[in-house]
# Entry
Amino acid sequence: MTLFTRRGLLKTAAIAGAGGVGLSAMMGRLGGWAASAEPVVLQTARIQATLMDVGQTKDVLTYGSAGMPPVLRMKKGEPFAARLVNGIDDPTTIHWHGVRVPNKMDGVPFLVQPYVYQGDHFDYAFTPPDAGTFWYHPHCNTLAQMGHGLTGVIVVENPADPKFDAEIVLNLRDWRLGDDGQFIDQFRPRDAARTGTYGTVRTANWLDQPRYDAPAGGLARLRVAITDVTRIYAFRVDGADATVIALDGNPVPERFAPDALLLGPGQRLELAIRMPDEEGAVVSLRDVRGTKPKVLATLRATGTSLKRDIRDVAPLEVNPVPEVDLSTAAHISLALSATAENMPTDGICGSLGYSFWAINKVPWSGDTPDPTAPLAEMKLGKSYVIDMENLTPQSHPMHLHGMSFKVLSSSTRQVQPLISDTYLLQPNEKVSLGLVADNPGDWLLHCHIIEHQKSGMTSYVRVV
Ligand code: C2O
Ligand code: CU
# Structure
């Protein structure tokens, strides 16, 4: 008797994925099955938390009952399930940023699922096809909900990963708090029309410069997710040899030292760090961008040296993302620009009340795009190149849901052929991103500076 299990199906799909349509297309078609995994309960809650010395901050949002949203651990190719229970008086959803899930599980209200109102729940179930660092957040009233705390990190483990002596996960974000430690206005319109409004208190894992221990002379894996709504970071590591092993959930083709590496909201960085030999030596991860550089977190060497060599970190397994076929790819041109047209009306997921930005001259307001017309209709299984041009003097971390792309070329810099879901376009940069439209459904494409997202720089593509 043949047992046609879900795992069996996935294996077949993974093999087919090497040359064919790919795993996620398969998942998309099979989407909606009930996972056998025990669901993790993610209940939104309004709590108090200590984010400043002056005392507790009220009106902080989290999943769970206290502190930062949990780091969710999943396994590549194994079913995961979560039940979102909404405990706050604002509709919400969960989006699994960078995880290639079936469309119905993508968490975009109106486009793919209903809003989850207070007291209601929604069950998510999917099998992550890729290993790496990802994150999760609401996709409704995002500026308020994410700004107040609803951003958590996802680690998708791969049993075939190289062995490290320590693993540290960092959730980087800011908070807009006044001197009394309480929330102040989430944004200023004139900043929303420029870089976005920065927070006033900068944290890693909701702490100011936390310190973690790692074995002296050992190899530490640092997983960093930028979950802030605005801030772009320039990363450096001081006090140890460090090398970038993965970006945005995918191994980098060639490793390099993070020397002021620029990454924007939504992006993730994985570093291998060779800890110093002397006990007590301190390694720091710094943000060196702008006028106020900051130590984000430190690692302290403990014990006698393990004497490991950073060159011993074996390559990470490449994720099963189908290879774009440039000989048959159709091109899609997208222009990012500023606008002052179309005042948005208030929607259920909140509006900032302004239109500042547009994609191909159309400003889309709110967290969910106007359902009337996708930016492009893509044919399932076909290759595409998105030629995206930034006509503005600001940077925009552009994020595509549901599918991973390959960075093909940039008009302003040398790029590695990175596989990613979020690309940080510099002012006046033009970039080409290649992908196979292997996941059916409606997929958002938006800037991850949330004020930009909510004041026009959002749209979607349709794969049929
Ligand atoms: Cu991080 Cu539309 O999402
Ligand atoms: Cu932007």
